[in-house]
Amino acid sequence: MLSKVISAVYFLLCVTSFVFTSAQDPYLTKALQLMSETPLIDGHNDLPWQLRKLNNNQLNQVDLNTINSTHTSIPKIKEGRLGAQFWSAYVPCTTQYKDAVRQTIEQIDVVHRMCQKYPETFMFATSSQDIMEAFRLNKTASLIGVEGGHSIDSSLGTLRMMYQLGVRYLTLTHSCNTPWADNWRVDTGTDPSEHDGLSPFGKQVVLEMNRLGMLVDLAHVTEKVMNQALDISKAPVIFSHSSAYSVCPHKRNVPDDILRRVNQTRGIVMVNFYNDYVTCSPFANLSNVADHFDHIKTVGGAGILGFGGDYDGVTRVPVGLEDVSKVPHLVAELLRRGWTDEEVKAALGENLLRVLREVEEVRDSLNATSPDDVPIPYDEVQNSCRTNYGYPDPPESGGAVHVFSTAALLLTLTLQGLITSA
Ligand SMILES: *[C@@H]1O[C@H](CO)[C@@H](O)[C@H](O)[C@H]1NC(C)=O
Ligand SMILES: *[C@@H]1O[C@H](CO)[C@@H](O)[C@H](O)[C@H]1NC(C)=O
Ligand SMILES: *[C@@H]1O[C@H](CO)[C@@H](O)[C@H](O)[C@H]1NC(C)=O
Ligand SMILES: *[C@@H]1O[C@H](CO)[C@@H](O)[C@H](O)[C@H]1NC(C)=O
Ligand SMILES: [Zn+2]
Q1: Nearest ligand to the CA atom of 323
Q2: In this predicted model, what pLDDT tens digit does every residue of 10-27 receive, in sequence order?
Q3: Ligand 2 atom with the shortest distance to the CA of 138
Q4: What domains does the chain contain, in order, with CATH numbers?
Q5: 279 Cα nearest atom in ligand 3
Q6: Could you give the residue numbers annotated as active site?
Q7: pLDDT by residue (tens digit) across 357-407?
Q8: Which listed site, 15, 173, 288, 351, has its alpha carbon 20 to 30 Å from 216?
Q9: Angle, CA of 228, 232 and 235, to the nearest 5°
Q10: pTM reported for the whole predicted model
Q11: Left, alpha or beta for 195 (phi > 0: left; psi -120 to 50: alpha)?
């Protein structure tokens, strides 16, 4: 009898607290409901880079259930209802012409190992179908994006093998020019333009990504590269972590005319939460981030929106969006601002799924096309760490050797003549 009373009291307490919570923020309740119907798909998270920085990718010495120095942990992922994540295989520009490829492959490896170590939480994913399968299993679909063209060392073979390892987007540049594409710092005047956008080899990279079924990511490139990629890409493009230039005029953000072109080409802009890109100042709050969502919706429609938090890749995040667990509050804010359920679900995940499906369809339609095996011209990639095996001997040095041997022959003949005459 007593236990029945206790149960009844407990039941009432639960009901009361449930009603109280919903009464407190019906928008949050609604947000969580929508997030149980459509996966939240985030375009960019740098946890793998934090794992390298913390202890050189020794995952055995880290527990993602208890880690708290990062924006991302398993409890935060659960609370944030993270349905799918593009984990960034990022290595800094200082590795360019050095060990960028090795370090990138190590970042890819640590994502694979993360999925193996926590199979209850993560499901390794490479397709739109995988994302939905993981969502049904209540797991976070884990995809890989490589952040920066320097990671492929100007090699289509390396690009193709990274695809085989599960990489599903390549950001054409990080914050440095590659031998084939200019980065956003060219638009600020910090870096010189070296290619006036994409070089001919840069265009080969974009088309080969179309053939492979790899998303072309235009975060971090110049406006010229954005336009050229939009001109030539056979599939929709993404901005994996960029916000709206009209709201905060930072060159990492996307100008309105590009937002309109993204709308026309059915691409997606996944909003970055980094304070400096949100308000162009070190300070920002959740409401400032929602302003970017509103602006992009006004210019390009809710059909081009997505989430690209950049968690664990940045040092300052907005008040109210302190870590991965807080994203449902941003979804609630959009509902509070009058967004319809359909618009919210589009931004949560349906848009990215649409883009990924179209990229997969383009890949399938190109399956009779041969891989592009034309290498970058050697004089466009010459550096002290690169050998020229496979390339013909450069004509000048061949010429020099020829001139040298002719001179040596003449000298020998002259000396012989001298010796003979002596
Ligand atoms: C974070 O983790 C460290 C080590 O596991 C622990 O000492 C510390 O109390 C934790 N801090 C918080 C805020 O949970
Ligand atoms: C899904 O995960 C959440 C968070 O861990 C949990 O509360 C819920 O019970 C799970 N649902 C299913 C169907 O496994
Ligand atoms: C967010 O910051 C803006 C200033 O950029 C301010 O006007 C607004 O009141 C803040 N919102 C909240 C909820 O703190
Ligand atoms: C582009 O904008 C038009 C007109 O506002 C809209 O009907 C269409 O759905 C948008 N496309 C996408 C992909 O959002
Ligand atoms: Zn970035």
Answers
A1: 1
A2: 544 444 444 445 458 999
A3: 1
A4: 2-373 (3.20.20.140), 374-422 (no CATH)
A5: 5
A6: 44, 46, 147, 174, 220, 241, 310
A7: 999 999 999 999 999 999 999 999 988 899 999 999 865 554 444 444 545
A8: 288
A9: 120
A10: 0.89
A11: alpha
